[in-house]
Specification:
Layout: H1 2-14, H2 33-36, E1 43-46, E2 49-54, E3 57-64, E4 67-75, E5 82-86, E6 89-93, E7 97-102, E8 108-115, E9 122-128, E10 131-137, E11 144-151, E12 157-163, E13 168-174, E14 177-182, E15 186-191, E16 199-204, E17 211-215, E18 218-222, E19 227-231, E20 239-244
Antiparallel strand pairs: 1-2, 2-3, 3-4, 5-6, 6-7, 7-8, 9-10, 10-11, 11-12, 13-14, 14-15, 15-16, 17-18, 18-19, 19-20
Length: 245
């Protein structure tokens, strides 16, 4: 286990923190994946192994003695654009959405069938209890939208809710809350505990945001020339902590 944790740290350092100064003693060190996630590379930990998307591949990393081992668990025909872990099921999206089961020994089983996304390109998504929260291109269009979807018995994704926003740029999910960055109108926070009836509980107007990340009790917004950090420990009283130029 110590070797695996060391491996995670090596990966983190090798990524160079994506331009951040990386002061490891504050909120920017709450979670590794805030620095590991890029459009084509995401990392997840399950059963003392790390699972990484890399180009078209989905790779499992573990340890054997003092060495790090890796094994290709999946190879898709197109680059993996986004991925998510829901309990013990991985969902990968390249040109289509596919699911894999993570077994208790750390191995990965192919669930074979593709999930129908109705020709929408999913740019980023989260899955919680088989409910999908997606940021995607709309069908046959470059317009983007945020939707909540569920899988029916025929492996189709059906929409339960759509958020009416002008220019959504990114999403993040924590517990029952979805955070949506809208480039023209700040960040919206919705309670999605009922996926058929999301309720807006907060609208943050202080930022123009292209990307958002969650790190513990902190929301980090990346704009054109500014990184802004918010305290979200009280979801009904979100407070700005600092701007990082």
């Amino acid at each position: 286990m110590k070797q695996l944790l060391l491996f995670y740290l090596i990966i983190l350092l090798s990524y160079g923190c994506f331009g951040f100064d990386c002061p490891y003693d504050d909120y920017r060190n709450d979670r590794f994946d805030i620095f590991l996630n890029t459009r084509y590379s995401q990392a997840f930990v399950k059963y003392d192994k790390m699972y990484v998307t890399k180009g078209n591949s989905f790779v499992t990393y573990g340890t054997s003695g003092n060495s790090v081992t890796n094994q290709e668990s999946a190879q898709l025909s197109h680059p993996i654009l986004s991925a998510c872990l829901d309990n013990s099921v991985f969902y990968l999206y390249s040109d289509r959405l596919k699911s894999y089961t993570v077994n208790t020994d750390g191995s990965v089983s192919n669930n074979s069938s593709f999930i129908n996304t109705n020709n929408s390109e999913i740019l980023k998504f989260f899955v919680k209890d088989s409910i999908f929260f997606t940021f995607q291109h709309t069908q046959y269009s470059e317009d983007k939208e945020v939707q909540i979807l569920e899988i029916d018995q025929s492996d189709n994704l059906n929409t339960t809710a759509t958020f009416d926003l002008l220019a959504p740029k990114d999403i993040a999910l924590q517990n029952q809350y979805i955070f949506i960055a809208d480039y023209t109108n700040g960040i919206y926070v919705y309670d999605v505990s009922n996926p058929y009836n999301p309720i807006k509980i907060k609208h943050i107007l202080e930022v123009t945001s292209n990307q958002i990340e969650l790190s513990g009790n902190h929301l980090i917004s990346l704009g054109e020339n500014m990184v802004t950090v918010f305290d979200i420990s009280d979801i009904n009283n979100i407070k700005k902590i600092e701007d990082i130029l």
